[in-house]
Specification:
Blueprint (H helix, E strand, L loop, with lengths): L1 E9 L5 H14 L4 E4 L17 H10 L3 E4 L27 H17 L6 E2 L8 H9 L4 E2 L8 E3 L2 E3 L16 E6 L6 H13 L7 H5 L4 E2 L2 H29 L1
Helix pairs in contact: 1-5, 3-4
The structure holds zinc ion (ZN).
Length: 253
């Protein structure tokens, strides 16, 4: 499989230390990722360092070297307990909200990015959670692409093109045709993890592509069976992640 890289939770107050190390790593292997920039971060979990004033200029510099930017929600605040139509997590900034509220959040976020000179038609939903209303609002607000969903190729849904993410990291390295995305969160990423990723990129360099190349792939049509399969996989993944967390918390007691 060909693998694109996406980095979540990019904010002026992120864990810059890990971010800069990961950036160096991607540069070493010549991989340009997609970064999910939060227009106005209000999520305290993402506040890792003092906010840097040069952040927005830095984002511009990254785009100049081929990195892509996605709008990562608006405030990155989970205000509902809905999992939506790609149910990986039982919380959301959008799923479950009435359409007008979603429209305000998405358009406010878009305006804020524009104020910083960033225009993008790629959307990254915080927590991977969104519903049918989110898709309608995105389409009406000029978005064309979403980084989410499961599958082996970009696909069309509700007038938008989805660029799937991986279900399981190890599956990406099997001999198989198609495309996927590996998702990375640099906030709190340890030195050991970064070393591990260094080895991973070195071992599989020929499989990695830049996100811009992923965006060039022609999307396939997706029917209701494909959608059902994706929903079941996302639900299974959510349940598995919960069970593992439960077992870990029990064994830690
Ligand atoms: Zn996020």
């Amino acid at each position: 499989m060909k693998i694109a890289v996406r980095m979540d939770d990019i904010t002026p107050d992120m864990d810059w230390k890990s971010f800069l190390k990961f950036e160096k790593l991607l540069d070493k292997y010549g991989i340009a990722p997609l970064i999910g920039v939060v227009p106005c971060n209000r999520d305290t979990n993402l506040m890792r360092e003092a906010s840097r004033v040069e952040f927005w200029d830095y984002v511009h510099k990254l785009t100049q070297k081929g990195w892509c930017v996605a709008q990562h929600g608006c405030y990155h605040q989970y205000t509902t307990k809905k999992a939506g139509i790609f149910p990986l997590n039982p919380f959301s900034e959008f799923a479950g909200l009435e359409k007008e509220k979603q429209k305000k959040l998405i358009r406010d976020g878009k305006e804020m990015l524009k104020h910083h000179g960033i225009e993008t038609d790629i959307f990254m939903a915080p927590g991977h959670s969104f519903d049918e209303n989110t898709l309608e609002v995105l389409k009406e607000s000029g978005f064309r692409y979403l980084t989410d969903g499961f599958g082996d190729a970009p696909y069309e849904r509700g007038g938008l093109t989805f660029f799937p993410i991986s279900v399981k990291r190890s599956d990406c390295f099997r001999e198989k045709e198609g495309f996927t995305t590996l998702v990375f969160h640099t906030n709190g990423m340890s030195e050991e993890e970064i070393e591990g990723y260094d080895k991973m990129f070195a071992a599989h360099r020929d499989q990695f592509i830049s996100y811009r190349e992923y965006l060039k792939q022609t999307p396939v049509k997706r029917g209701w069976i494909g959608q059902k399969k994706e929903w079941s996989l996302a639900t299974a993944k959510r349940v598995t992640v919960r069970l593992i967390a439960l077992v870990r918390s029990k064994s830690a007691q």
